[in-house]
Amino acid sequence: MKKYFIKTYGCQMNQADSLVVSRILDEAGFKNVKNLKEADVILILTCAVREHAERRALGQIFSLSSLKKKKRCLIGILGCMARTLKERLIDGCLKEGLFDFLLGPDAYRRLPEIIENKFKNYEDRPIAIIEEEKETYSDILPQINYEGIEGFVTIMRGCDNFCSYCIVPYVRGRERSRPISSIIKEIDFLLSKGKKLITLLGQNVFGYKNIENGRILNFADLLTNIFEKFSNLKYLHFLTSHPKDLSFELIEKISKLMKEGKLFKELHLPLQSGSNRILKLMNRKYTREEYYEKVKYLKELIPEISITTDLIVGFPTETEEDYEATLEMVRKIEFDFAYMFKYSERPYTKAREIFPKVEEEVKQERLEKLISLQNDITKRKNEEMINKSYPIIIIKVQNKESLGRLPNNKLAVVKEELEVGKEYIIKIIKIDGWTPIGEIIK
Ligand code: SF4
């Protein structure tokens, strides 16, 4: 029996993909191992969204070349970097012996066949398969080979938005949604395996669209169907979403589900920039005013909602004035948390052709100032929770401490061993760093 090892980089969609890959290989008679030295096939599931993640994956690929000299094994590169690596291979920028095959995110079904083939023709040149754009893996249930009560369901793949800084549409292809029936089947499967907190994944879940029996079903229809089938399901969550597709009608729908405790009272809504000029150059298709109105309405309906976001500083041509507009939005909205990045140039994207670029030192300065502002807000918002009580669902117990999720999806720690998957009521007694620390009330 051939053994395989997977190392996964990047987002939760890649983590979910790695479970699909595991299922495909397990059903073809391969065995998963946790130690790469034992493996006959080493798979690196890559991310190309930011240069940093790409560099880490490349470092790993280079470090594996010494292993390949010592034993007969295959190295396969999967995921978002497959396309760029294929081009680098063709134009001679990359040595051929580093890996044996490259498979894009829609070509994983081919893995067993490619592996068999490469073992038979070990010395052959690397194989590269990238484009198979209609794939949703909707008939493949993920392999549950991890602990815990959290489960992830990919509801759609690819993206049609072409934000000018983003590589995703070029490496993960056009947007496709899975049929509702296959999503429900997967949730059912995860619940039967003891998972309790389900996250729906997609590059832009609000763009979910599927035609069933001649009717176009959108994200709101998907939620309705899920809760009709699983009336006891609590704290569903979804990632990630595009502000332009968040209608006021959808805000009302999700707010109602949040009030009923069916969804976490949290929304991740990437703002990216607070400047309308930069948002236009980013091709984001909303203005800061529209974004603000939506957040304001959400907060009116659910005052305790946690709003998190993504922000980019140093996008090409960003002036001090544009940057100040971002800081102003951060102060005004008071995000509970933000993922903050310096603009990083990615292959194929339109933003590469936008000049002038912002100097590296300026980007760094802007990022540091933004992080400091947001950190203060995050801490202050968490401190507002002190002396209040909340239900908590425990997701992990480690070193005599329990980690759980609050209804606003924030993580909190209780300094005693509790039961994973069980709900308790805690009172937040202090904030340690940013982390709320709670004591059991019941
Ligand atoms: S919505 Fe924009 S940022 Fe998100 S994946 Fe699509 S192109 Fe990239």
Tell me what the structure shows:
The protein has 442 residues and is of the alpha/beta class. The protein folds into three domains: 3-129, Methylthiotransferase, N-terminal domain (Rossmann fold, 3-Layer(aba) Sandwich), CATH 3.40.50.12160; 150-383, pyruvate-formate lyase- activating enzyme, CATH 3.80.30.20; 389-440, OB fold (Dihydrolipoamide Acetyltransferase, E2P). It has helices spanning 12-27, 51-70, 82-90, 111-120, 168-171, 180-192, 219-229, 248-259, 276-281, 288-301, 320-333, 360-383; strands at 3-8, 31-32, 41-46, 74-79, 101-103, 127-129, 150-154, 156-157, 176-177, 197-201, 209-212, 215-218, 237-239, 266-268, 306-313, 337-342, 389-398, 401-405, 411-414, 423-432, 435-440. The strands form six sheets. It has a six-stranded parallel sheet with strand order 2-1-3-4-5-6, sandwiched between helices. Strands 17-18-19-21-20 form a five-stranded mixed β-barrel. Strand 17 and strand 18 (401-405) form a beta hairpin. Helix 8 packs parallel to helix 10 (288-301) and helix 11 (320-333) runs parallel beside helix 12 (360-383). The radius of gyration is 23 Å and the shape is globular. The mean pLDDT is 95. It binds iron/sulfur cluster.
Properties at a glance:
single chain, 442 residues, alpha/beta, Rossmann fold, pyruvate-formate lyase- activating enzyme, OB fold (Dihydrolipoamide Acetyltransferase, E2P), 6-stranded parallel β-sheet, 5-stranded mixed beta barrel, binds iron/sulfur cluster
